Protein: Glycosyltransferase
Organism: Clitoria ternatea
Amino acid sequence: DIPMEKPHIAVVPSPGFTHLVPILEFSKRLLHLHPDFHVTCIIPSVGSPPPSSKSYLQTLPSTISSIFLPPVSLQALPDTTLLAVQIEDSVTLSLPYIRQELNSLCSTTRVVALVVDVFAHGALDFAKELNLLSYIYLPQSAMLLSLYSYSSKLDEILSSESRGPEESITLPGCVPILKRDLPLPFHSSIGYKQFLQRAKRVFVPDGIFVNSFLELESGAVRALQEQVKGKPLVCPVGPITQVGSIGHENGAECLAWLDKQEPKSVLYVSFGSGGTLPQDQLNELAFGLELSGQKFLWVVRAPNTLASAAYLRAAVEDPLQFLPHGFLERTKEQGLVLPSWAPQIQVLGHSSTGGFLSHCGWNSVLESLVHDVPVIAWPLFAEQSLNAALLVDGLSVALRPKINQNGLAEREEIAKVIRGLMEGKESIQIRKRMEHLKNAAANAIKEDGSSTKTLSEVAAILRGSLVYHDMKS
Ligand code: UDP
């Protein structure tokens, strides 16, 4: 039931909840500016899409249609522990189907532009063939885009000298980061090679949408805009966070529990849509929460030594069986433990939530800013260490626990950091800075805000291209 007569934007996400939802939330914003347009989302997936993605897709307005491509099986992907490689390769396997759907869409409707998730950059070639405007949607920070843009220079620097993991690197306009905090693909040869190749492709389209805003990352955005000199357009259009909620079985229980707590007294603990901890770290975190004496709401997943294990494939075991013996009984007054999933947007927006122990996935970062909740930064994989550096060192709105020589955050350290965030002297300043960022975030997406203006400029380009297309046909 795709309306044939309406001008169209084709959108290609990549597999995984957080490479699907953000690009669709972005589509909703664009449609708000262009109510007469229609978006068709062509969805590649690995296996069957997770329940969270399915529930989300049911909430879409009628101005967005979805086409599901035949799923790629996990077994068809290279045997690597790197999520980025798996996601990107799964899109590569889906390219013939993407092309087929795009061709058929273009022959029946007035498509003006193609917007693809960063891992679906392979589809950009089709935009050229079909004479469409092309955009990449990066559901991440401007700092990550800076890393893409600076990567070949950084590669030269890193291969001509030996820099230890504790030495720092400064990307143009960004807060310095330690070499060990470079995104996970930098620490594997296949991942690094693919990162460098992707970096070249990122700067091919007409524009790059980045889910950030000028006031949050002004240094990085300005440096990027200077460097690309107009093409591709670097367009900060955020913060784009999920609006509205998707129903979930844990939802009602957890919100009812929050209703009973004191204002800003609860620490919410979650590692994103698929982050996991190894068993020994899960134990330390459990004891650390208990020792801290603070109220907590913890989304627990079954442990795994691979941090991104549950991103493309949810674990089936009951995660609560992996908690230390007696933990649930001892903490039944102190905390609530939820298996695998929580309605995060509502939790962060709840007046009882006062802190967020987060893996610093970019969506979680933006959601914490929008809802004014200070953070304990616990990065696990992907570019999460960059995000943690931005929050801790750049913006001073987060604390980060120290890791021992075995790579573990120990219970005493965890408890200390939790108390520091929830009630320490530093927390007053952190809360003030967070409130300031919350206001800046709200301003950026107001009617005359920086991100709204940027998006309106792109909307005008799309409208202009439509006139051109219609004249030709
Ligand atoms: N999320 C949620 N409930 C959960 C875990 C995650 O609603 O229990 C949502 C969260 O609100 C965010 C997204 O899933 O929008 C996670 O995105 P993020 O970029 O933080 O991490 P990723 O899943 O990509 O590692």
The radius of gyration is 22 Å. The CA atoms of residues 445 and 452 lie 5 Å apart. The pocket of uridine-5'-diphosphate is lined by residues 17-18, 242, 270, 272-275, 299, 341-342, 344-345, 361-364, 367 (CB under 6 Å).
